[in-house]
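Aim 2, interim progress. The first record below pairs a target sequence with its structure tokens.
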Amino acid sequence: MDTQNTSVRSHATSRNDGEIHPSRRTRATPRSGSGGVIHDNARHTTRFTVIGNHLAQHAELSLLAIGLAVHIQSLPAGSLVDIRTLAARFPEGKTRIAAALRELETHGYLRRSCERTSNGRVITRTVSCNQPGRSGATGRRESESQPTPRRPARREEKPPRRALPAVPQPAYPAPDLLRSAIEVLVGLRRGDPRLLLSGTDVEHLAPGVAAWLERELPPSAVHHALTVDLPAEPLHRPAALLAHRLAAQIPPMPRFSAPVARDVVRHPLRNCDACDRAFRAAEPGRCHDCRPEPPGAHPSG
């Protein structure tokens, strides 16, 4: 048994099943020969966050996602948790942080929704959940006090995915045009990792990009139109944003200009002075076959 050092000021310790007084420091040791971790615990009285083991020991979340969830839950209300802010705070980079946020959203630790403010600006509202899918304490006490038997917990089903907005269609969907459109869409993520699209999204958006390319726009111009002035917040549905831009900002078709017809000069018919055959020429004379060959036309053999 460890002995307490009386010369050191005692620290507050965390309670373990109500057996340890909060004024004492505890040191939990593993069984003999196990070689496991040793916990040297002291109770926090200020600046602490309660984290459930369902998060700290989650079997499906990555270590980055768990750490990011702990960081977000420790922040005060109103703190910015967009990808750009988190990437400036941590060294993992925008791509890995965006993937971790999607993990937390999939498992219910984050809820993100786009809202339009009174001045017309679109912002992303982020809600951090420390116990996903669980109701408040008041609601639990009320339900437990009722004599009705509990129903088996129903598995939470994800809501059906909303359909993407319609996009323009090209007049002539040539294979080469659609291939160029797909290359434009796949290349968007190189400039902004938030524009990582699924195969279904690319298949839906490709005709819209082809309609832009059909208007004699280079791929670089289409890329710029889809990526310029994006909101700083996380993009909850990037494919929907791109579909809206393709439909709302499509340029007009170039004006058709008919080719200028050349004036064809038709000379009058004349009779050849040598063979009397008819031919067209500006002046009377001989036809082409009866004209004398210029000197040197056929070199002597």
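The second target in this work package is listed in the same format:
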Amino acid sequence: MQKVLRTEIKKAIMTRYFIISIAIGILISMLGLVYNVGLFCGNQRYDGMNPCYEAFTLFNHWIGGEGFSLGSSLYFFVFPILIAIPYGWSYCGEQKSGYMSQMVVRTGKQRYLTAKYIATFISGGLTMVVPLITNFMLTALFVPAIKPVPTYDTTYGVFGNSIFSELYYTHPLVYVLLYLFVDFMFCGALTCLTMLSASFIKYKWINCILPFVVCMGIALLGNIICSNEPEAVNYQLSPFYFTKCVQTSYPTKLSVIVGMLLLMVIVTVVFNTVFMRKKDIM
């Protein structure tokens, strides 16, 4: 099992589709970098004498900490497609080439599929967070990591009812790392859906847009469920928004993200153990 897993993980991160997805993600994040660094320099041009100096910090100038630049808006809209490209594309190719059949004969169907799902999970999570980490590190070269002050919560977009808000104002770096971990886990589980669809759908491009379709469906459902009444308490359901480290509309609830993640894991496990055990891999 370990040998098969190492092989699949190596294939997941060495494929050209993975590199292309990472490269596209980094290029998009550069749009946010240029905008936010320019914004920071414009507001701090008077030798740091700006009276609102604490409002301009690394933690609200990297692409994940702000939600309104072109780079941020674009990245968190197309990420479901980017995370699906590496294995959503190659998985269909392996089915057609006969590689899967050979691996099943050598290692056993259950071992191969388990290793494939784990590798797909890791591939999707890395495709999501690597461009974010790159943007965070490059932004840190220009914008100081000033500890956020609650007085400027409207500038940060992290409020008292925001997820992990206490960490944001006490240990902001831990906050960022924790949010990246949440994004990694959610996107890893979301990417595994491409393997489910590939068992029925042989068109590569359809499998690659499936996570986007799922996210869009959840977003539309959230718009229907959320109430416009003044006294109503709404939570963010759209993955396009709760994957950001900033609250752009409704507050995010951790249980919502965990619930979606667990649902995707349960569907994947049930499908893998029940359907794929009976299905012949060609």
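The radius of gyration is 21 Å. This observation will shape the mutagenesis plan for the next reporting period.
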